[in-house]
């Protein structure tokens, strides 16, 4: 039986800013522009926002900085930062706050100028006591360890990893907003420069700028606003480690815990899902999460994604915007999973629009396969 929270709240506005390259603009400027776009998309005003949820890689006290910059005085706020999955957790937190009447319109927002500020793909505050003597290049080294173990244990190949990147690019080629477009073959991925064996430059996400935001309200209000609501159906988070050296099993993530609880909360199962949005910072992520979320058995992820199975016209629509591998990845990617899911649920995805999209799963990942948060969103038909 579904949880009482299912369908009680909905996303009614989405917005982005400066995705790709935004020279001369700060992280908070991009966050603010995306926030104002999301509020306008919802048909609301800045003064309507009384709930604020934010996580960034540039602010120690994100809600304080964001509220001051936007000029809002929220009644409820939360700055939980568990890495790139923070925004899927914020969906659950906002749904709880809205349903309890603690706020009436919740803004969830993010911004980063990582690319033009000269940033590289690095992981903040990686625990030093376990790993520094081995001189890892985090987070890449951590994900390479997981990929290597999966290959050793289950016979996964570099070609299977490559097929994840190829599928993401195929979707990106249908998305005018994607940063990386153009041909990409399995051979291109396999021939690209090795960064941390077995991961090449094409197995690793983009480094871009970008801001993203969404607005949530209670369902009874959502039905009277501009766009089709994307209802929050269920969500759950899990975290088992911070340092990759402390991950209990390099082939099993905490998505195996968050996923089943999110499905149970929504009263749904894997065959109900039309769209799967996964945090694909690395090609191995997609394989691990498809397994741990129950779309295929453990160890079968590589074979599941092979030969275009998750590309356009494949058996499962995965990362239809092009993902972090080819669309956008400004340091913390979880907000952009939500934005694409809402776009598809509304039927506004243009050339890449799915014929049927009533239920979308968003799965965020933070740290080095550390925090895992699963959220299910749906259209009216999903209620």
UniProtKB/TrEMBL annotation:
Thiolase C-terminal domain segment(s) = 237-378
For this protein, the record's CDD domains field holds: SCP-x_thiolase
List the molecular function annotations (GO) for this entry: acetyl-CoA C-acyltransferase activity
Question: What domain of life does the native source organism fall in?
Answer: Bacteria
Under InterPro entries, the record lists: Thiolase, Thiolase-like, Thiolase_C_2
**Pfam families in alphabetical order:** Thiolase_C_1
What is the name listed in the Swiss-Prot or TrEMBL entry for this protein? Answer: Thiolase
Q: Which source organism?
A: Aliidongia dinghuensis
